[in-house]
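Chapter review. Work through the record for NADPH-dependent FMN reductase before attempting the end-of-chapter questions.
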Amino acid sequence: MATILSVSGSPSATSRTARLLRHLDDRLTDHGHDVIPLDVRTLPAEALLHADFRHPAIVEATALFERADGIVIGTPVYKAAYSGLLKSLLDLLPQYALAGKTVLPLATGGTTAHVLAIDYALRPVLNSMGPAHITPGWFTLDKDISVGDDGSLAVAPGPAEALAQVTDQFSLALGGRPTLLAATG
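Structure tokens for NADPH-dependent FMN reductase:
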């Protein structure tokens, strides 16, 4: 099956965005894909701040993008836009780093006022990087994502169903096998 790079653009170590992505990574693995997680916050700050294209961590991240057949991009929404941390990484990648790739954009945020951030802020940047296909994305409200004391993640039923649907569409676009797994909350 396909190799998928699952990128969290959240700067927070306790990020709901990153936890949600890792939750969806499991679903993609169940579809038969090889999923590689990448939390942008783990890249060295000096490489991102100084736009050091040759820093070993940036070279390695670029290689992960090259290797992947599909890319899941997840970001929290701040001030109606994707995170600055994600922007820093995208700026350091080659212009056509998404050429030939299938991309799934996802976002989380505190208010429905930010729902269009995927289409009006993130999608144009991703599109400029030459992907073969950007599948429909999804915005999930922070209040619909809860983390248990044991670190387990639960998503409210409606959003869980929608996330399962966009994740399955992305998987099928990459040649994944259909699954009858119920949307897990």
